[in-house]
User: What shape does this take?
Amino acid sequence: MKLEPLFDYHANLAAALDVGAGPYGHRLIVEVAGGAFEGPRLKGRIREGGCADWLTMADDYGHLDVRATFETDDGALIYVEYHGHVELTDAVRAALAGEGETDFGEAYFVTSPRMQTGDPRYRWVNNLICVAQGRLRSGRVEYRVFRVSND
Amino acid sequence: MKLEHLMDYHLDLGAALDVGAGPYGKRLVVETSGGSFCGERLSGSIRAAGGADWLTMCEDFAHMDVRATLETADGALIYAEYVGRSELAPSTLAALAGAGETAYGENEMFTSWRFQTGDARYRWLNNLVCVGEGRLVPGRVEYRVYAVLND
Assistant: This one.
């Protein structure tokens, strides 16, 4: 089993709304204002609507719960959802507050994206198990996405 | 980013109940009757009740949706849930019908795991993204599960 690069993407971060502590923990809703993705088999933009991270903050980690709509350059729509975990180091907390950046592999910041589409050209994405690592840049989050494949 | 072995895991399979095609596709509920897991940092048994695979049969893939309760040898309870994709190759279909088995890496059979526990000794599992590769042997499914870690 190995990890094989699939595509890179970034999402532009808008407001982080502090919903407070409810029955499932302390929730933040981080709104996303579009973005873009690019890889050898998959390229396009992230739609501005219907995309956010319903983040739960616990025990020095943020637990991501993200939905997004990807639109490929050739007009296919792909629904993307993922869970993930981000270690709330001082650098991550500062970057989330708009001060500084983090790099890939610096803190634990890993997700497991899933994709759904009915477009025959991209039906293969329905059957992938993927993982991604993230980093925070000014005003955006960037990911490298890998698919899990056999050796 | 790298994969580090977390545990080997098996589930004993019970009846596969064909629920038929509903609004989300063709569903099978595959009952499980316990199992075990073994790794350097966690080992124990899987509770016989409260686990199953709510499987959706797609074109050439089955999409797994599994819940299980893990009980470690030292008494911690861990709620595990995972989604997966299993290529319905001829050897997979034969093994599901009780004839023969499949090997790791023979077909695509991958999973993406999440764990939840309040036990202080295993809290680190709450913050890990994990993936697994699977195979079918008579009466059971086996997985090698890996944590996705920074290099």
User: Anything to note?
Assistant: Strands of chain A lie at 2-22, 25-39, 42-46, 52-58, 61-72, 77-87, 109-116, 130-137, 140-149. The first helix of chain A runs from residue 90 to 96. Residues 112 and 131 of chain A are 4 Å apart (CA to CA).
